[in-house]
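hey can u check if this looks right to u? its 230 residues, i copy pasted from the old doc so theres a chance i mangled smth
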Amino acid sequence: MLSSVAAAVVPCLGRLTVTSDHRSAPEPGSIIVANHTSLADPGVVLAALRRLDVEPVVLATAGLWRIPVLGRLLERGGHVPVHRGTHRAADALDTAAAALGAGRHVLIYGEGRIPPREDAAEAPPESFRSGLARLAHAAGAPVVPLGQAGARRVTSGSTAKQLAGFLTAPARRPRLHVHLGRPVHLPPGVEAATATAREAVTIAWRTAARHLGEPAAASARRSRDGGPAR
């Protein structure tokens, strides 16, 4: 249900394009990990995945379940609330592992938050939390990196700027791009696995950002290779 809503709404907000390193949809029971940049990007990601016939179970902050309408959609879709900072936080990983075992795709945001930046520009993913690695190890599931770019052009910054962004997006229709990378099997050890996943998502994000002509994609690569970064 949530994926179908996203597929209907996102084309009104921007011009979405999708590329993939897969010849078909990711195999059932895969973890899809995406970079998180904006309140708009979950919808963008779900709309893109639906084009690939993937409707994932989403791990999201539990506070979203308290929002009218959205909370009901999340509940009906079997999505997984994450109660951060409580004894219930580990329950989300158990529920996600069960979904993977049943052959569902699971979507998780490795960073666990939207970056606290005011500008609408692209930037590489921030540090990842350990939940992704722990889930992948527990479930023995492959990890599919997903990079999205352009969602900050829909909405970002202060509350006033975010509201203005949503209201003007149908007229502006910014370009949005999602790229699905090749699956990776994470190495043993949470730290190494987390770093491997972040690098894979960064590569997928760079591909998406290059499709939009974002300068951050080129500067991130030069920085990684030891050259000057802008």
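Strands lie at 15-20, 31-34, 57-61, 80-82, 106-109, 143-149, 175-180.
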